[in-house]
Amino acid sequence: MFVIIDMRELNMRSIDLNLLVVLDALLEERQVTGAAKRLEMSQPAVSRALQRLRDLFDDPLLVRGEDGYDLSARARYLQPTLKTVLSGVNQMVAPMSFDPARATETVRIGCLDLEAALYLPGVMEQLRERAPGMGLEIQSKPGDYFVSLANGEMHLALSGQEPAFATDQFHRVQIDSTYSLCVMGADNPLAQGELTLERYLQATHGFVSISGKGPAILDIHLRQLGYQRRVAARLASFFNVPDFCEHTDLLFALPARLAERLCQRHRLVAHPLPKEIPQPVINFYLYWHARHHQDPMHRWIRNLIIEAQQQREH
């Protein structure tokens, strides 16, 4: 059997690495003018580079749309890989060293307000002390943080979820493991005595839904057991819980780390869930993309987060 090989795939010496830098700017700016300004090149030079790129990939890359230019399907496919390649080249030629005292980078971390409040305050304290020129940008808008990691939009993600794609692209380390507690106002009659399954099912409940869609995981477990609870409130943030249950009869099931913290600051009481309800362990992980795995700055900030968590536990 004969295999036909496209010689363009093998002739790597004919590929100008500078073209990939131009391609990255073109895909980001989606126009020749913006790319030329960003690269400090003339528009004719960028136009010629775009034509060479079109010949190289046998694809238009930029196509006219309703509001100017848009990316072709091939360009959208290339963009995340291109960022990985360019990041790898930068790491390859950059000196493998990092001085926190002189660093000026901004670390971008994706996480919900829950993870930010539980695991990042200590990190900020250490950052101000050991790397005062560095910044911390927390992106708490709900979304797929793994896509943002893959696209290079974030350095790190704190999450209890797992990636649904390209799991071999991500590294992770577990930073915490917890369970759920039932939180209620101190004046709630259920705050006194054992929270039995009967009392729990007769109560009125609230829950936090970051996505705003579907039932709570706890309700799914209850239905599997043949039980159903009455839900009167669905919130978008864990930190609104005290406002909704401190002076009402509502109950909320929250991660124990957060429940204990809220009980210290508000007139709330936490009880274990009834023993009949399954108690899955809640794991939180620190994720990063493979492109940053060997980066000295990245390794330093990862260790800082891990150390801050270890100090909090002790």
Order of SSEs: HHHEEHEHHEHEEEHEHEHEHEEH
How many helices? The count is 12
At CATH's second level, what is the architecture of the largest domain?
Answer: 3-Layer(aba) Sandwich
CATH superfamily of the largest domain: Periplasmic binding protein-like II
Radius of gyration: 25 Å
The profile of the biggest β sheet is: 5 strands, mixed
The number of distinct β-strands equals: 12
Give unreliable regions as ranges.
1-10
How would the global form be characterised?
A: elongated
Oligomer description = single chain
Content-based structural category? alpha/beta
Strand content: 15-25%
Major sheet: arrangement of strands: 4-3-5-12-6
Task: Identify the CATH class of the largest domain.
Answer: Alpha Beta
Chain-averaged pLDDT: 87
The first-to-last residue Cα distance is 65 Å
CATH topology of the largest domain: D-Maltodextrin-Binding Protein, domain 2
Task: Give the SSE map.
Layout: H1 17-29, H2 32-39, H3 43-57, E1 62-65, E2 68-71, H4 73-93, E3 106-110, H5 113-119, H6 121-130, E4 135-139, H7 145-150, E5 156-159, E6 170-178, E7 180-185, H8 197-202, E8 204-208, H9 217-224, E9 230-235, H10 241-245, E10 250-255, H11 256-265, E11 268-272, E12 282-289, H12 296-313
Parallel strand pairs: 3-4, 3-5, 8-9, 8-10
Antiparallel strand pairs: 1-2, 5-12, 6-12, 7-10, 7-11
Helix pairs in contact: 1-2, 1-3, 1-4, 2-3, 6-12
